Amino acid sequence: MKQPGIRKIVNALLAVAAIGAFCVSTLPVWAADERGRTGSNPQHPRALHFEDITANFNPPPEIKGFSFMPGVAFIDFNHDGLMDIFLVGGRGQANALYRNNGDGTFTDVAAEAGVADVGQTGIRSGVAVGDLNNDGCDDIYVAVGTSIIPGKEVDDGPDRLYINNCNGTFREVAGKAGIHEDGNNTSVAFADVDGDGFLDIIVGRWVGFGLNDPNVGRNVVPGRASRLYHNNGNLTFTDITEKAGFGNPDFNTWSIAAFDYDNDGFIDIFLGYERGPIDVFHNNGNGTFTKVTALSGALNAFGAWMGLAVGDFNRDGCFDLHASNISDLRLTRDSSLPPLHVPPPSTWDNPRPTLFRNNCDGTWTDVGETAENSGTLKFSWGTAFADFNNDGFEDIFLAENMAPVGVIGREPQGAGPSALLLSNGDGSTFTEHIFDAGLANFGADGNYLDARGMGVADLNNDGNLDLVLVNVPQFVEPFPFGATPIAGKGAPKVFLNQGTGNNWIELNLIGTGKSNRNAVGARLVLTSKGGKQWRTIAGGTSVYSAPSRLVHFGLAQDKVAEDLTIRWPDGRVETFHDVRANTVFTVTEGEHRLVRSDRDHDRDKDGGSCDSKNRD
Percent of the chain beyond pLDDT 70? Predict the structure, then answer.
């Protein structure tokens, strides 16, 4: 007896399976270890655990000499579908560009690529990565700080701008491009602030230790305004700081976050100051900004804000901030030691690293002490939001320490091991897991290392977010003028996330038309059985570093996302339905489909895609 109804059902199921197969990623994934941690196992999620893979780097990464705040950036410079690592060299040492070999090992190719910058006399510091000329190849900006000399500031930059030749090499063009930055520069961010489709450059600036009187009040602080360079679209840049109403000469910038906090379609700029508030520059949509810090609520509190992270920890569609802070130094420093030229108590209101909730009305509320279940004062630097355990809620990482023994105090281990705050899944609180996750930042001698720059990326395309910490040298002499290094201290660390078995989706966005190619400013919302999640691609964030732009969603046990909506920087909206989990997709604006990413970044080689519904 014929059963046409059943046959139709079977055929339909086979068709769906075939379509799904086209959407499965063929990006290279390092093999799972004997415990089978890599991949997903929805029935038995595992505890989050990281493994230190720094031994797989050739040569081993090391920062030498006095290198106050070198950053880290992620870039697929050779277009092989694998995230490479750029480490800023600090002072008197070449930069490193570690090529991801796809087998769990990394090789420094900075010299061959033309980005080593041997002979630079300043202190290399911040870094930004992005496609400045929209040619499909990411470029690199390296900020250079000045030599720190008591009572004197030496402008011995300049900053470097490396344009990717799209053949595995770069050329340095800062001077030709109209960028002449010789001062003490800090963090850098790329963002298209005027919506013309080209990434502009935001440069943080600072006055060094030698000019800071430790006894000054909050209103007598030597400052240096950050700068905003307009991208002219031809690899030249124009300083529009004054014209745009940007920058604040009263304060020194340590961190930058560029994102649309009020959902009006324009990228705003947040600057974290060493002795001051977190300044909020609202984008007026006409090429100018209005400083609205006084109206922002808790962001107007003075602190020593070092790092900024952007995320939506409570899943309400309004992007929040996590800010690291070093204002506690006067509270925890050993009183028997000589004073440091650092922010005195009179210059801050808030001494803690803090979680700021965006109230969706232009104001912010400090919820850090309650959310993190701690009022602990932590000397902290780089920070990030990321869903490390893929449970659908963003977690927080915080790089800690200013470790040389005798700086914070005489504790043999230093100030702290860094912090991993995992969301409790309630959209409001977090719990510390730094030790049980294997992320405590110890050196070979059992003492804590001094972590500064940090960044998050998926280094092996397995859907689990990994982490790089830039540890700086420590010295026998009191900070900041140490001359005798303590062996083994300036060793950056790379931690590979072994996965929990939860499901995930990752997206590489490519803007077209009036959007910048990196899609900085894009806003995404994903809907699954577990609820809605929002993400954005922000410019800057962390401190002195450039996290990966890959958009990551954890799905917990959900195998499919019901809907995924992308609002591109130029305002175009595309919606995708029934998006399969555990896949890395490339999405090109206007093509109306999710395309399985592959090692060669050839989107159409296999024809694998998932269609979308488009709304212009």
Answer: 77
Type of residue numbered 38: T
C-alpha atoms less than 13 angstroms from C-alpha of 338 in its C-beta half-sphere: 7
In angstroms, the CA 585 to CA 603 distance is 10
Q: Which of 180-184, 272-276, 407-411, 606-610 has the highest mean pLDDT?
A: 272-276
Count CA within 13 A, CB hemisphere, residue 351: 15
* DSSP category for residue 116: -
Closest by CA position to 51, among listed 499, 495, 435: 495
Task: Give mean pLDDT, residues 313-332.
Answer: 84
Which pLDDT does position 484 carry in this prediction? Answer: 78
Q: Coil, strand, or helix at residue 1?
A: coil
185: Cα separation from own chain's centroid:
18
pLDDT tens per residue, range 424-437: 999 999 999 999 99
Burial class (CB in 10 A: 0-12, 13-18, 19+), 284: middle
Distance, CA of 541 to CA of 256 (rounded, Å): 6
Which runs of consecutive H residues, i.e. helices, occur in 486-526?
none
513, containing H or E segment: none
Residue 20 has pLDDT above 80, yes or no: no
Of the pLDDT bands very low, low, confident and very high (cuts 50, 70, 90), residue 349 is confident
Distance CA 362, CA 128 (A): 27
Q: Which residues contact 538 (CB under 8 A, 6 or more apart)?
A: 191, 257, 258, 259, 310, 319, 520
What is the rounded distance in angstroms from the CA atom of residue 552 to the CA atom of residue 406?
A: 40
By the 10 Å C-beta count (0-12 exposed, 13-18 middle, 19+ buried), 337 is classed as middle
Task: Give the model's confidence band at 326: pLDDT under 50 very low, under 70 low, under 90 confident, else very high.
Answer: confident
CA distance 128 to 75: 10
User: What torsion, rounded to 10 degrees, do the Cα atoms 398, 52, 113, 472 define?
Assistant: 50
Is there a contact between 510 and 587 (Cβ–Cβ < 8 Å)? yes
CA 553 centroid distance within chain = 16
Task: Return the DSSP state at 45.
Answer: P
Residue type, 448: Y
Model pLDDT, residue 33: 37
pLDDT band at 257 (very low <50, low <70, confident <90, very high): very high
Distance CA 221, CA 503 (A): 49
Q: Give the separation between CA 129 and CA 140, rounded to whole angstroms.
A: 5
Buried b (16+ CB within 10 A) or exposed e, 144-162: bbbbbeeeebbebbbbbbb
Question: One-letter amino acid identity for 58?
Answer: N
